[in-house]
Specification:
The protein is α+β, with helices and mostly antiparallel strands and 375 residues long. The protein has one domain. It is 39% helix and 9% strand. The strands form 3 sheets. A 4-stranded antiparallel beta sheet has the order 1-2-7-4, with helices on both faces.
Length: 375
């Protein structure tokens, strides 16, 4: 099975027993009790299933955990310095990994069943890639793919921080592998690198402060006090992953569909903010970026424009004051308050604030005029 997994492009293949994460429910309950999930209500739904894979499928006897390396070709954090460009998380710079990994999981599952039949055994399988109530990271830890680091993500001694995870649940009884030890030691590089303090303690994360959450999952406006800390990150954040010392063993992705598209490495903000919905969908076709939708994407781009310090981008933000979405108009206000000279912004506010009907956008105007954006 491992040879077939490698042939299909998986870089790690290990097995866990379905009852191997008994501590997971308590950890999840503590996370949810503190409200750290933010808008991710789906974490609350079927929370019992997440802690015990047998709740998801009572017949499961073994869980095969697969890892696919998506290591970037170079420093994933390099484009953070390019203030006129948008920084997209390394995992989203090409095809949606759900599609890439799931297709290969199905092929591997079919091969597993075929092999079992050759040996006179019948079995059944289900495949999952981050879309079902499965706690892939704890399962991958006990299966030996790596360990959950202090940033709560999986770390591999062979591939650093860059592994996509998928799982095959099966009724076949397969011998489980040994868990991986924690090799973080005294290192706290990921905690110190987090721009917003989302990693407030080792092995704990507050999603409400995490830039990946804020730019992908958060449905409303990004909190005003966090916007300056986002910099040019328009989709996701790799800071805690990129600084991990174990990345010295990382390798470039083997799967061509996971190698970065050149036009998604540092796309210019001028191009991104001018996209209409059709252009957005076409440019990000097949990419996970498309999942945020056009309005939230423009919200993120306007935050980056506000943080760019480039006055030349102000006319593009002014154009977005007429967007149909209050979320976009509100963030355009914030961006302009950061770019324009104070007197020029006040003159613009005198005209445009009176024309605005949405209360949330009006509040953005008022906060900016009152100087609350510059605190």
């Amino acid at each position: 099975m491992r040879a077939e997994a490698a042939r299909l492009g998986f870089d790690a293949c290990r097995i866990a027993a379905p009852d191997a994460i008994p501590e997971a429910p308590a950890r999840l309950d503590a996370f949810l009790a503190e409200g750290r999930q933010g808008d991710m209500d789906w974490l609350i739904e079927k929370r019992d299933w997440r802690g015990d894979p047998r709740r998801l499928w009572p017949e499961v006897r073994s869980i095969i955990l697969l890892g696919m390396n998506y290591g970037p070709d170079g420093d994933a954090l390099a484009t953070l310095a390019e203030r006129g460009a948008g920084n997209i998380s390394a995992y989203a710079r090409n095809r949606d990994y759900h599609d890439v990994v799931k297709g290969k999981l199905k092929l591997l599952a079919a091969a597993l069943l075929a092999r079992a039949r050759e040996m006179g055994e019948e079995g059944a399988v289900k495949v999952f890639v981050d879309t079902a109530p499965v706690m892939e990271k704890p399962l991958a830890h006990v299966a030996g793919l790596g360990w959950q680091g202090k940033h709560t993500n999986l770390v591999s001694r062979d591939f650093g921080s860059w592994l996509f995870l998928g799982s095959i649940f099966t009724t076949l009884a397969l011998p489980p592998d040994a868990a991986e030890a924690d090799h973080c030691g005294n290192c706290r590089a990921c905690l110190d690198a987090c721009p917003t303090g989302a990693l407030d303690a080792p092995y704990k994360i507050d999603a409400r402060l995490c830039i990946s959450y804020l730019t992908i999952e958060a449905r409303g406006q990004i909190p005003r006090e966090l916007r300056p800390k986002i910099g040019n990150r328009i989709y996701g954040c790799d800071d805690c992953l990129g600084v991990c010392p174990w990345n010295k063993f990382a390798q470039k992705a083997r799967e061509a569909k996971l190698l970065a598209r050149a036009d998604l490495v540092a796309p210019p903000l001028t191009k991104l903010v001018a996209m209409d919905e059709g252009g957005f969908r076409a440019f990000f076709a097949g990419s996970p970026v498309k999942r945020v939708g056009h309005a939230r994407f423009l919200r993120n781009v306007l935050v980056a424009i506000g943080n760019s310090g480039d006055l030349a981008l102000a006319p593009l933000a002014v154009a977005r004051l007429d967007h149909i979405s209050p979320q976009v108009r509100g963030m355009a206000v914030w961006a302009l308050s950061r770019l324009l000279p104070r007197n020029e912004f006040k003159r613009l506010a005198e005209k445009r604030r009176a024309e605005e009907q949405d209360a949330s956008v009006c509040e953005e105007w008022d906060a900016a005029v009152e100087g609350r954006n510059h605190a």
